[in-house]
Every structure is written in structure tokens, then in C-alpha cells.
Backbone:
């Protein structure tokens, strides 16, 4: 789960990482008010769950409350398209109005989980700012990585070492050491999968401040992070993913191909994606229904997969262990009766109660494309999608 910059900055401030003074505004008039409270030059920053705003017109520096109102008015209610969003962009419903700071240096500070090493890794760089992705690609040695054993945490000497790496003056070094230590504490306390300050700036008057903030929460920890869960802004997410979640279907993922996939189990889902690709196609989405032996829930799942306009064929590939393929078959029959499915459906069932499942599908008289091996199913789905698009 992602949160907005202004929310991330509130958390940073709570943890003692300095941020510029500022407030969120949900209308142009409100932005004007905040700007006048802050006095003079301010930044107006579109609040969306995507980076790359600076290069996309989502960050403006203005020198009066009137200009702040105008800038906010241009952003709020529009959609912002950045290199991290889909071509449709994401809606801007709020802006962060912040004191504009005189920036001397733009540094980078981030923490993510390094899945290979199995530990959090703190990354710092003197080359912070809007081109950090380019830096990572062309000169990765400019980003310094320090792995942190979660059982030990950040030793003070290691935090100091990282601050030294940033070539700071003594007072700033102390501030950066504190920022690194506090950011790690936030990362750990809130079960983050990522926190990122880019840029971490050194101001003309020598302060060290988080000018931007990004924070992602590990969804597996959402049950114990209720406070952060409440910050969730669903307007920023894919509408079908939001709908799936609201129906208790946690594992619906939107992708950009043309085959809608209903499968059970994450491993099977990954294998389906690989096989579709091997057969010359791509998935439009996948929905992992896990084990839910309830035909109504199967109908809901099919409804979500089918609602995606990119779907040109549906592939239902179920390997029944605990999951019963006869229940899946009942769900397919019920879904076909209840809704208007215009695209071809390829069904492959295997495992528990498969004879009964096959019988239900056969007797339903539905016009389904049947497949009996995995490869056959993927191949037929790709062909069906090509034909109907
Ligand atoms: P992003 O492009 O979505 O990552 O948005 P950022 O919040 O990082 O802003 C982009 C760029 O705007 C930063 O790299 C800075 O160069 C600049 N910027 C952000 N805040 C300030 C500020 O208060 N003063 C000045 N002068 N520039 C800022
Ligand atoms: Mn940034």
C-alpha cells in the first residue's frame, strides 16, 4: 500500500526527520490560505501515488498566495501523467503547499528490503534528485548500500559512516546521522517495504531536510498497521483492484496483455503468466482465488476478470487440491447465466472432483473451449484472444 507525500512527511516528522513546513490543501482557495499562512514563496505539489511529478508539471514553485491558488487550481481535478503512471494518469485531488526552500545540494536516502540478501538495505547517494533512476542505471557505484541486520538495527557508527559518505559538514553530518537512524526506526515500526527521501536536501542555510517522501507499507502487515491502513486513498489505485479487495479478493492484479486469468495459487498464477508468454500472448490480469469452495465467490471472481475491457479471452486454469473443481464448474455455469460474457472462455480443470466438474460443464451446454493440459490451455487462450480482438 502506498501513501501520499504529505502523509509520509507527517510520519517522518513524528519520527524526528525534519521536513519543510507545509499543509495539504484540497481546493485552490485552501491552497491560497496555506500559502499566505506560510508567507511568500511556496511549492505546490500534486499529491498522487506516483513519482516523476517534477518532470510532469506536478511540482510548481510560486511566489505569492494568488499564484499558489492558480497553480493548485490547475492541478486539482486534473489527472497527472508521469513516467510511472499509465497513459491515463492518476487523479489529483489534493496538493501539498510547502515553504519553498533554497536548495544547496540534493542527496538521496532510501530503505528497501533486499530480497536477495534477505535484509533491509539503506541506500545513500550524493546524486539525489529527479535523475536518480538514471544514476542507478549508468553509475550504480554512486549509490552506496548498507545492509542492516534487523535483529541488530542501525548501529550508531554505521549511521555515521553513511552520513560521512554523503560528504557533509560536521553539523549536517550529525543531522543526517539522526535522519538515517530515525528513518530506519520508522521503516521497522511501520512494516514498510520502502521508504525513500529523494531529495534529502541541504539548504542554503545549512539545514538537512526531507524535500520529498515516499512510503510503501508491506500489505502482509496491514492487520497490525490499522492507523496507516486508514491513510489509503483508493482513488489512486486501479478501480478493479479496489473492487476486488472490497469483495475480499486480495489477489487480483492488473496487467497489460489481453488474456484474463482465473487461477488458484500464486505459483500457478506465475506459471500461467510464463506459459501465456511462451505461447505468444500476455495476461490482461490475473486473479488468484485460492481455495474458496463457494460458487458465488467464483461468480464474483469471474465478474472482476470479465469487467476489464482489455480482456479478449478468459483462461480459467484450476488445479484442485483443497479447491474443488466441481464448485468452480458450478461457478462458471452460474456466471455465464448471470452476466453477459462476450469473450471466449478457455477452461482447464485438474485434480479434486474433476470428473464431476467436467460433467457439470458438459451438461451445461455452454460454449466453452476445453483444454486438458496446461500448455494446451495457454495456447488456446492466446489464440482465442487474438481472434476476438
Ligand atoms: P518527484 O519528481 O515526484 O520525485 O517530486 P519531488 O518532490 O522530488 O520534487 C521534484 C524536484 O523539485 C526536486 O528534486 C527538487 O529539485 C524540486 N523541489 C522540491 N521541493 C523544493 C523546494 O522546496 N524548493 C526548491 N527550490 N525546489 C524544490
Ligand atoms: Mn522525488
Residues:
Amino acid at each position: 500500500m502506498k501513501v501520499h507525500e504529505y502523509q509520509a512527511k507527517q510520519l517522518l516528522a513524528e519520527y524526528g526527520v525534519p521536513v519543510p513546513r507545509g499543509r495539504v490543501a484540497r481546493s485552490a482557495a485552501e491552497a491560497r490560505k496555506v500559502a499566505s499562512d506560510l508567507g511568500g514563496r511556496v511549492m505546490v505539489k500534486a499529491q498522487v501515488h506516483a513519482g516523476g511529478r517534477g518532470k510532469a508539471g506536478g511540482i510548481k514553485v510560486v511566489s505569492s498566495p494568488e499564484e499558489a491558488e492558480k497553480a493548485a487550481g490547475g492541478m486539482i481535478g486534473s489527472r497527472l501523467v508521469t513516467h510511472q503512471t499509465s497513459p491515463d494518469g492518476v487523479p489529483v485531488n489534493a496538493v501539498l503547499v510547502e515553504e519553498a526552500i533554497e536548495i544547496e545540494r540534493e542527496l538521496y536516502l532510501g530503505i528497501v528490503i533486499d530480497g536477495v540478501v534477505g535484509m533491509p538495505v539503506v541506500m545513500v547517494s550524493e546524486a539525489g534528485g529527479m535523475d536518480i533512476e538514471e544514476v542507478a542505471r549508468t553509475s550504480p557505484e554512486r549509490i552506496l548500500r548498507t545492509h542492516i541486520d534487523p535483529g541488530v538495527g542501525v548501529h550508531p557508527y554505521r549511521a555515521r559512516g553513511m552520513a560521512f559518505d554523503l560528504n557533509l559538514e560536521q553539523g549536517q553530518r550529525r543531522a543526517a546521522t539522526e535522519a538515517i537512524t530515525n528513518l530506519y526506526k520508522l521503516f521497522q515500526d511501520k512494516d514498510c517495504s520502502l521508504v525513500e527521501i529523494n531529495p534529502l536536501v541541504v539548504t542554503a542555510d545549512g539545514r538537512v531536510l526531507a524535500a520529498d517522501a515516499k512510503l510503501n507499507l508491506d500489505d502482509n502487515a496491514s492487520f497490525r498497521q490499522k492507523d496507516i491502513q486508514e491513510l489509503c486513498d483508493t482513488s489512486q489505485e486501479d478501480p478493479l483492484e479496489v473492487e476486488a479487495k472490497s469483495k475480499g479478493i486480495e489477489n487480483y492484479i492488473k496487467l497489460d496483455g489481453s488474456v484474463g486469468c482465473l487461477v488458484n495459487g500464486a505459483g500457478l498464477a506465475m506459471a500461467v503468466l510464463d506459459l501465456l508468454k511462451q505461447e505468444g500472448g500476455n495476461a490482461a490480469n490475473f486473479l488468484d482465488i485460492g481455495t474458496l469452495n463457494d460458487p458465488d465467490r467464483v461468480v464474483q471472481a469471474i465478474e472482476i476478470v470479465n469487467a476489464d475491457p482489455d480482456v479478449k479471452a478468459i483462461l480459467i486454469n484450476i488445479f484442485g487440491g483443497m479447491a474443488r473443481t466441481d464448485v468452480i464448474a458450478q461457478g462458471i455455469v452460474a456466471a455465464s447465466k448471470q452476466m453477459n460474457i462476450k469473450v471466449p472462455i478457455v477452461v482447464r480443470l485438474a485434480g479434486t472432483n474433476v470428473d464431476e466438474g467436467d460433467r457439470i460443464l458438459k451438461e451445461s451446454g455452454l460454449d466453452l473451449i476445453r483444454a486438458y493440459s496446461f500448455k494446451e490451455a495457454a495456447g488456446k487462450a492466446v489464440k482465442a484472444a487474438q481472434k476476438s480482438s
The chain has three domains: 1-19+102-237, 21-100, 238-388. The first strand starts at residue 22 and ends at 25.
